[in-house]
Every structure is written in C-alpha cells, then in structure tokens.
Write a structure and sequence with these properties.
93 residues, alpha+beta, two-stranded antiparallel ribbon, 4 strands, elongated
Length: 93
C-alpha cells in the first residue's frame, strides 16, 4: 500500500470488523522513535527541506526523517529561520 521507504511501510496493520461483517484494514499509530545517531546542520537563507534531505540521504522524499528528529509537524517551519540548527538523523543502511 505504501511505497518502499515510506515512513508508514513498517507500521503494523490491524483489521476492524464492522457490524455487517466487512473487514476494514488500517495502519496502527506511527510512533516517532528517538533518533539514535545524530548530526546537526545549520539552515542557510531560503533553503528548502527537500534539498537538505537530498544532501544527506540522496532522496528528497526522506525529508520526514528530519521532521521526526526535530519533532516538527509542519516541514516548512524547520527552514523558516535562517541559522536554525537542525538535528539530522544519520542515514539508515
């Protein structure tokens, strides 16, 4: 259901059975793990989070790893302030 590398790919599934007997599959809650290995990065003027993710992970769609490590719900909040120091989790192998 989710692409490889998605933050939801490893979340376990559950099944809810409605009164008429139909089964509805859904993903359980995704808990944000504490980042184990970290590095930091200082945001440059007018920088975008997808470009920062590409710099560290060679994949702009992995921006959510940086969001999780910084406990950000709105990705743009992380790059709004020039000079902000971001926590960057090391790439998973």
């Amino acid at each position: 259901m989710f692409v490889r590398g998605s933050r939801y790919a490893s979340v376990t599934e559950a099944i809810y059975v409605v009164p008429d007997g139909r089964e509805i599959r859904y993903k359980r809650l995704r808990f944000i793990p504490d980042a184990r290995a970290l590095q930091t990065y200082r945001v440059a003027q007018q920088e975008r989070l997808d470009l920062i993710a590409f710099r560290f992970y060679q994949d702009p769609e992995q921006f959510w790893r940086i969001c999780d490590a910084n406990r950000a719900f709105v990705p743009d909040d992380l790059t709004r302030e020039t000079g902000r120091r971001l926590i960057i989790p090391l790439a998973e192998r």
